[in-house]
Design brief:
The structure holds two protein chains of two kinds. Chain A is mostly beta strands. Chain A has strands at 4-7, 10-13, 19-25, 31-37, 43-51, 54-57, 64-66, 76-78, 87-94, 106-107, 111-115. In chain A, strands 2, 4, 5, 6, 9, 10 and 11 form a seven-stranded mixed β-sheet that branches. Chain A has a four-stranded antiparallel β-sheet with strand order 1-3-8-7, with no helix packed on it. Chain A starts with a strand and ends with a strand. By secondary structure, chain B is mainly beta. The chains are: A mainly beta, B mainly beta.
């Protein structure tokens, strides 16, 4: 089945540690996105990528980094500079990267990150 | 900042009743989408309505869009216990930048037997 796979499902970070969340899609989608979800606050955009080897900051990029070396992969690193990393992280993809796209986003099942 | 705000924040109804959720947004949009999220899971796309459309149906879902009031509503008819979830509206901003979604804070729907 085509879809988006996020791993791990649960992740714990120690003080001063960088951690990387995996996101892989087999939908052959161009655009990929990372969101952070805190209780009662909806989803906020961290980074997005419209094409391989290119990505842009979203609304809350500080303390995070990404790479897009392959079309199907868009890993997110939560660095030690992110002082409040505890949240639910969601990866999504979309079939086209057009400016006025009317295609929906497809989501993975998320990674829950906590601080030890 | 959040583009969309849902109302109510939480809604509890009995099975068979209709559920109505509202979404307001602030700026001109290209389209508005509704997503559903079961607890601890990712979001699932429900329906998309373009800025030049006023109403759209999909099964038991009915979405309306009023661009003059910058608002949308999602109606779920004949609700079932399996409809229990959080529902989010999301807007694609018509700013000429990359197509990004901005999500509201969501409505938590509880459907009881």
């Amino acid at each position: 089945d085509g879809g988006i796979t996020q791993s791990p499902k649960y992740l714990f970070r120690k003080e001063g540690q960088n951690v990387t969340l995996s996101c892989e899609q087999n939908l052959n989608h161009d655009a990929m996105y990372w969101y952070r979800q805190d209780p009662g606050q909806g989803l906020r955009l961290i980074y997005y990528s419209q094409i391989v080897n290119d990505f842009q900051k979203g609304d809350i990029a500080e303390g995070y980094s990404v790479s897009r070396e392959k079309k199907e992969s868009f890993p997110l690193t939560v660095t030690s500079a992110q002082k409040n990393p505890t949240a639910f992280y969601l990866c999504a993809s979309r079939g086209d990267r057009g400016l006025y796209s009317n295609q929906p986003q497809h989501f993975g099942d998320g990674t829950r990150l906590s601080i030890l | 900042s959040q583009q969309g705000e849902e109302d109510p924040q939480a809604l509890s109804i009995q099975e068979g009743e209709n559920a109505t959720m509202n979404c307001s947004y602030k700026t001109s949009i290209n389209n508005l989408q509704w997503y559903r999220q079961n607890s601890g899971r990712g979001l699932v796309h429900l329906i998309l309505i373009r800025s030049n459309e006023r109403e759209k149906h999909s099964g038991r879902l009915r979405v309306t869009l009023d661009t003059s009031k910058k608002s949308s509503s999602l109606l779920i008819t004949a609700s079932r216990a399996a409809d229990t979830a959080s529902y989010f509206c999301a807007t694609t901003l018509n700013t000429g930048t990359a197509s990004k979604l901005t999500f509201g804070t969501g409505t938590r729907l509880q459907v009881t037997l």
